[in-house]
Structure formats: structure tokens, C-alpha cells
């Protein structure tokens, strides 16, 4: 599957993957987060086991032609926060736009963030990903918007500094493990939105419990540019080298899907103040306001 060419954009994925055809009775991802939310006071912070530790061995960063994936091996798990089981963390990956366009998959009041990071976790009872695809709650994906400021994110550098080694499709490199929590907005992890949806890439299976965090990760313009201008969807020796850009699926209507706000979520108050992602300073101030 691909994104940029007219014959294989996400709207035509259903020609090859029937489950990518949106149906009225199903919830497809991504969606737009607006004010049609239901507060659920039982949704507290998730338990992120091993996220604050340095795991043994090494991780693998890979360009698969569709995204950049960080395979994190074993040792981390996600549970609680209304999830139906324990989920083992398997990988994280990114979605981004182009040189002058934003590229998050989910939107907030119709506005995109520059990037979105997904931490993919598989239900522990399943022996492999194929088995999990047949379970409506087979995967728990933690979604983080990525916004841009002027200073480099030192922790994000663990990934961005390795991108030159995976510039072309099929390339892989080792990454020294680091505490995954250092990437995340760790003081705002109780503020999120929850819904049941699908994978955002083929086969688009209805198998994902989505947790979308309210407060973004902040990286620098130069770190963002490494994705939008220095990563390619083609192999190094291809006749025509094609940048990997706009690797996000289109937003889908929610139909009858319920989108819940966690106990501490701000119910998109940031979007109500500004019709776009807020600067870091304003996000900080808004999160001091009791909700």
C-alpha cells in the first residue's frame, strides 16, 4: 500500500483490502476529536510497565517504506485505564506530512498537528499479530500528537539522530534502548481520549482500543524536517527516489462510535481557545486550570 500516487491513495485501499471500506456500523480510524465527547470518570492513568527503565539488549529502527518503526522487543507492557487486558508493547512508529503541510492522523477540531506517534501494544493472550487482528480489542495503541518548537528535544534525539541510517526503504539500524517515558508528556498522562477503532493502515482491521493523549510531544523544526525531507519510500538504488511524505490515512466520520474523555482530560478546552495546536507556554497554563 502507499499514499502519494493517485492509484493507491488511502481512499482506494478497499479495492485490495475489503476491510478498509468504511461501513456505517463500524468505527474506522483516524477520526476528528471535537466536543462530542462523553466524560468517563473511571478512566484514570494507564499503567506503563517498564517505560521508565532502560531495557536490555538493543532496539531496531526500520524504514519499511510506509513509516519509520522502532521495534522495542520485550520488557514493556500497558494496562489499566479501562483497558480490558494487559498489552505487551511491540513497536512505535510515526505519521507526518510534507515540507509545508501537517501530517497527524487524528485531528483536533479539524486541525492537524505536524506529526503523530503511535505506540503499538498487543494483547498478551495472543501468540502473534495475526491472531490479535481477529480480536476487536487485540491492540491498544497510544497516540501522541507531535508539535514543533525551536529547541531540540534531547530525548527524541535517540530516534532522530539515527534517521540518516534508515533514509531508504528496507534499511535498518540498531538503537540503544532508552526510557520510553522520557519521550512522553509524563506529567499529563492522565489526560486522554478513548474510542474503539481500526488500524490506520491495511488491512484496516477493527481491532484497536485507541488512547489519544491531549498534551503533545514537542520536537524542533530541524527534527521534524528530518522526517519530511530526509526519509524516502524507495530503496537507495531505485531509478527515481521518492520522499516518504503524507503517510496518514484520511479522517473518518464517527457515526455511532462513542469517544470518551478521561477523568482529567480538558475536553478539548485548548481547541476552544485556539483553532490550532497551542504553543507550549499556553498548553502549560491551561493545564494549571482545574478541570
Automatic annotation (TrEMBL):
Domain Alpha-carbonic anhydrase: 1-263
InterPro entries: CA_dom, CA_dom_sf, Carbonic_anhydrase_a-class, Carbonic_anhydrase_a-class_CS
Cofactor: Zn(2+)
Pfam families from the UniProt entry: Carb_anhydrase
Catalytic activity: hydrogencarbonate + H(+) = CO2 + H2O
Enzyme class: lyase
Gene3D superfamilies: Alpha carbonic anhydrase
Protein name in the entry: Carbonic anhydrase
Amino acid at each position: 500500500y502507499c499514499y502519494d500516487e493517485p492509484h493507491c491513495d488511502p481512499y482506494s485501499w478497499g479495492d485490495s483490502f475489503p476491510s478498509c471500506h468504511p461501513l456505517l456500523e463500524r468505527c474506522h480510524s483516524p477520526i476528528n476529536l471535537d466536543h462530542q465527547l462523553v466524560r468517563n470518570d473511571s478512566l484514570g492513568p494507564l499503567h506503563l510497565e517498564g517505560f521508565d527503565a532502560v531495557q536490555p539488549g538493543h532496539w531496531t529502527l526500520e524504514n519499511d517504506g510506509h513509516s519509520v518503526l522502532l521495534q522495542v522487543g520485550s520488557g514493556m507492557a500497558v494496562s489499566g485505564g479501562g483497558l480490558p487486558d494487559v498489552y505487551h508493547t511491540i513497536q512505535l512508529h510515526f505519521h507526518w506530512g510534507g515540507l509545508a503541510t501537517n501530517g497527524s492522523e487524528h485531528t483536533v477540531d479539524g486541525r492537524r498537528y505536524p506529526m503523530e506517534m503511535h505506540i503499538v501494544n498487543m494483547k498478551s493472550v495472543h501468540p502473534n499479530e495475526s491472531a490479535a487482528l481477529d480480536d476487536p480489542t487485540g491492540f491498544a495503541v497510544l497516540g501522541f500528537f507531535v508539535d514543533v518548537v525551536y529547541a531540540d528535544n534531547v530525548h527524541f534525539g535517540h530516534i532522530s539522530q539515527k534517521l540518516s541510517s534508515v533514509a531508504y526503504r528496507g534499511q535498518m539500524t540498531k538503537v540503544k534502548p532508552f526510557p520510553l517515558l522520557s519521550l512522553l508528556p509524563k506529567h499529563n498522562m492522565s489526560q486522554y481520549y478513548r474510542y474503539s477503532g481500526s488500524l490506520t493502515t491495511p488491512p484496516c482491521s477493527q481491532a484497536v482500543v485507541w488512547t489519544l493523549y491531549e498534551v503533545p510531544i514537542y520536537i524542533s523544526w530541524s527534527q521534524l524536517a528530518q522526517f519530511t525531507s530526509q526519509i524516502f519510500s524507495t530503496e537507495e538504488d531505485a531509478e527515481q527516489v521518492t520522499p516518504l511524505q503524507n503517510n496518514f490515512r484520511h479522517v473518518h466520520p464517527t457515526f455511532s462510535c462513542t469517544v470518551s474523555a478521561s477523568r482529567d482530560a480538558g475536553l478539548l478546552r485548548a481547541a476552544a481557545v485556539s483553532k490550532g495546536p497551542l504553543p507550549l507556554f499556553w498548553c502549560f497554563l491551561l493545564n494549571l486550570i482545574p478541570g
